[in-house]
Amino acid sequence: MKYFNPELIVFDLDGTLVDSVPDIAIAINKMLVALQQATYTEEQVRQWVGNGAEMLITRALTGILEPTEKPHNLTQARALFNQFYSANVCDKSELYLGVIEGLGLLKAAGVKLACVTNKPEKFTLPLLEHLGLKDYFQFIASGDSYPVMKPDPLPLLAAAQFFLVDGAQCLMVGDSINDIQAGKRAGFKTAAVSYGYAGKYTLDELEADYTLDRIDQIVALFETSVIAY
């Protein structure tokens, strides 16, 4: 494998650093009960995460992965979801194995770190804070930080501009097609984790430059003289 020493590494959040589906599924089902609609299993909800809160809620309301119309009760449903999820944004969510170890090694080596997620800021920041991740990142962009979100490259380009780093020296790490497409469109190298919320896509179909089973494996991309592990 050819070594790559990125100056900036941008991480997705849900499905990459954190398994947040248990809390999301609880909030989604409470929302559906309040609306007198059928609920879903945690595994079903797991397939719907990654395109922002509105799309998640739309999928839950319709039971369709790729809905073509907005449900009539979307506004009411979103208010209910926000209420339920805000109350328990990090009750059952957990870090994936190797996350703290990997971020710690990268930070100690002076690699610039950013988090770019499609999750709304009001959920992103409390989750990062609660799990002890916030201080690893000098740049955090949420799904409502800019007019567009992943797979649009804008938030990634903003991260690169913040650190004054060329896109060719950046790496996007994520679990979904939105992450990998955003990375490629921004001119970044890309790494896909083998777990997370890839939805209908297989790992091969994501077509990332690298594959990781754990975040701390990312140090293997570097020359051994750059990061000791």
Task: Summarize the structure in short.
This protein is of the alpha/beta class and 229 residues long. It is built from 9 helices and 8 strands. 38% of the residues lie in helices and 13% in strands.
Backbone CA Rg: 17 Å
Order of helices and strands: EEHHHHEHEHEHEHEHE
The whole-number mean of residue pLDDT values reads: 94
CATH fold description of the largest domain: Rossmann fold
Q: What is the total tally of β strands?
A: 8
Shape: globular
Task: Name a few traits of the molecule.
single chain; 229 residues; alpha/beta; Rossmann fold; DNA polymerase, domain 1; 6-stranded parallel β-sheet; two-stranded antiparallel sheet; 8 strands; 38% helix; globular
Please provide a written account of the structure.
It is a single chain. The model has no long low-confidence stretch (mean pLDDT 94). With 229 residues, the protein is an alpha/beta fold. The chain contains 9 helices and 8 strands. The strands form 2 sheets. A 6-stranded parallel sheet has the order 5-4-1-6-7-8, with helices on both faces. A two-stranded antiparallel sheet has the order 2-3. It has 2 domains: 8-19 and 93-221, Rossmann fold; 21-87, DNA polymerase, domain 1 (Orthogonal Bundle). Helix content is 38%, strand content 13%. Helix 9 (203-206) links the parallel strand 7 (189-193) and strand 8 (210-212). It has helices at residues 21-34, 42-46, 53-62, 74-87, 99-108, 121-130, 154-163, 177-185, 203-206, and strands at residues 8-11, 18-19, 94-95, 112-116, 139-141, 170-174, 189-193, 210-212. The longest helix is centred in the N-terminal third of the chain and has 14 residues, at 21-34.
